[in-house]
Amino acid sequence: MLNEKIKASELEVTGLQGESLGVMSREDALALAKRHHADLLCLSLMSSPPPCKLVPKGMANQTKQQDKRKSEGEARIGKLKEIRLSANIEQHDFETKQRQISKLLDGGDAVQLVVRIKGNEGPAAKELLERMLTALAGVGAKESGIQLSGKQAAVRVNPLS
Length: 161
What we know:
The protein has 161 residues and is α+β, with helices and mostly antiparallel strands. Helix content is 35%, strand content 31%.
């Protein structure tokens, strides 16, 4: 809470340099903030009297926005993208898929690599996924081993932090 929005009658005030100014009335604290061309920022409403701090004019909103942006950045959870490959892929197509997967991993998204298996392509599919994992070692790491199940082989690759 900022300035006039603070409703408590008494406040524990801290100065611009972090020095304790003691407990004072709301009106005195607001007048002090005006004299110093500062904002009065309430740190917590849970204690009595609530601790408040003098901050340079406009800095309260700026730090709040920076904290919000920082937390949004940390909270961003990459999506899981599925990339399908075939067991008998040409070298050029392999390199194209590798570039596409690298871009996704650089963007923070996890990638699920899936190879459809027809007939007896199981070993070839596993070899292809192992080759792709070694090619992507610089940008991503596999979450678990390669899973071969019935008609497909799959592995999940997470971006390196």
